[in-house]
Amino acid sequence: MNHNRQSNDGKHDDDSALSDFLASLMDYTPTIPDELVEHYLAKSGFQCPDVRLIRLVAVATQKFVAEVANDALQHCKARQAAVVKDKREKQQKVISFDACF
């Protein structure tokens, strides 16, 4: 029975943390505009009047794009490291579109 109470307390903590996070999204301006997120959500058939949820999707999308760009940069660096070094000490890093896939 005590285990059930601890489970409920943990759920309450999770709900509280989620509520705090969603409230903090009201003060945050994401990189991806709300209108753009709303457009693509509506295009996929999802309607939501809650700005917090729209910003949550924007933050998740921003994180995904940042991870893809970082992975592409690491791939580019690894590919350039495998090539025989040029006489120049620093080479400009160029990420090509095919590195994203």
TrEMBL record:
**Any single GO BP term:** transcription initiation at RNA polymerase II promoter
The answer to whether UniProt assigns keyword Transcription to this entry is: yes
- What superkingdom heads the lineage? Eukaryota
What's an example GO cellular component term for this entry?
A: transcription factor TFIID complex
Q: Which UniProt keywords apply?
A: Nucleus, Transcription, Transcription regulation
Among InterPro entries, the record links this protein to:
TAF10
Q: Which GO terms describe its molecular function?
A: promoter-specific chromatin binding; RNA polymerase II general transcription initiation factor activity
Instruction: Answer whether the UniProt record assigns the keyword Membrane to this protein.
Output: no
Compartment list: Nucleus
Family, as annotated: Belongs to the TAF10 family.
Q: What is the protein name stated in its UniProt record? A: Transcription initiation factor TFIID subunit 10
Organism whose genome encodes this protein: Gossypium armourianum
